[in-house]
């Protein structure tokens, strides 16, 4: 059964809205990759616009620190055994994208050699929309 899209849990202090979501195709691919590689994480370090590629790594293989922001936390399990997945972004990149909501989607093509989806003939990409701030 195909997955539904998934909003991340809020992780930024003082905010009450999700900044990042997974499209249904991304949830399906991530569950398959989790079965193959174990726990996963995302990191977005560059790219200026829609179509930028977040990198998906086995959890803990990309070391995050003070120069990164945890934008969201997903549970890929669908209510079964927990499958946490963190979405990180470099703080410098977040300064550019702080006014947007991000959706991780999947398209045909080869991802980066370091991202776990690379051999699958698919790649993750970012779709963004402006956040409508209350007046």
What is the secondary structure topology, with strand pairs?
Blueprint: E1 6-7, E2 9-10, E3 20-22, H1 24-37, E4 40-44, E5 55-58, E6 68-75, E7 84-90, H2 91-97, E8 100-108, E9 122-130
Parallel strand pairs: 3-8, 4-7
Antiparallel strand pairs: 1-3, 2-6, 4-5, 6-7, 8-9
Pfam families: DUF779
Provide a descriptive summary of the structure in words.
The chain is of the alpha+beta class and 135 residues long. It contains 2 helices and 9 strands, in the order βββαββββαββ. The chain has helices at 24-37, 91-97, and strands at 6-7, 9-10, 20-22, 40-44, 55-58, 68-75, 84-90, 100-108, 122-130. The strands form 2 sheets. It has a 5-stranded mixed sheet. The protein has a 4-stranded mixed sheet with strand order 1-3-8-9. A hairpin with an 8-residue loop joins strand 6 (68-75) and strand 7. The protein starts with 5 loop residues before the first strand and ends in a 5-residue tail after the last strand. InterPro entries: DUF779. It holds the Pfam family DUF779.
The gist of it:
With 135 residues, the chain is of the alpha+beta class. The chain contains two helices and nine strands.
Q: What spatial order of strands do you see in the largest sheet?
A: 2-6-7-4-5
Please, what is the average pLDDT? 89
The succession of helices and strands, N to C, reads EEEHEEEEHEE
Determine the fraction of residues in helical runs and give it as a percent range. 10-25%
Low-confidence stretches: none
How far from one another are the termini? Answer: 41 Å
Number of DSSP-assigned strands: 9
Could you tell me the radius of gyration in angstroms? 14 Å
Major sheet attributes: 5 strands, mixed
Strand content: 35-45%
> Which shape, going by the Cα principal axes?
globular
Number of helices: 2
Alpha-beta content class:
alpha+beta
InterPro entries: DUF779 (IPR008497)
């Amino acid at each position: 059964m195909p997955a539904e899209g998934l909003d991340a849990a809020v992780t930024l202090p003082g905010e009450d809205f999700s900044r990042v979501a997974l499209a249904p195709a991304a949830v399906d691919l991530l569950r398959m990759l989790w079965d193959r590689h174990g726990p996963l994480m995302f990191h977005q370090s560059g790219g200026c616009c829609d179509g930028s590629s977040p990198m998906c790594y086995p959890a803990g293989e990309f070391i995050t620190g003070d120069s990164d922001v945890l934008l969201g936390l997903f549970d890929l399990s669908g209510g079964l055994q927990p499958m946490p997945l963190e979405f990180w972004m470099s703080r410098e990149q977040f300064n550019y994208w702080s006014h947007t909501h991000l959706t991780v989607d999947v398209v045909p093509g080869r991802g980066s050699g370091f991202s776990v989806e690379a051999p699958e003939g698919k790649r993750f990409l970012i779709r963004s929309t402006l956040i409508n701030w209350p007046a």
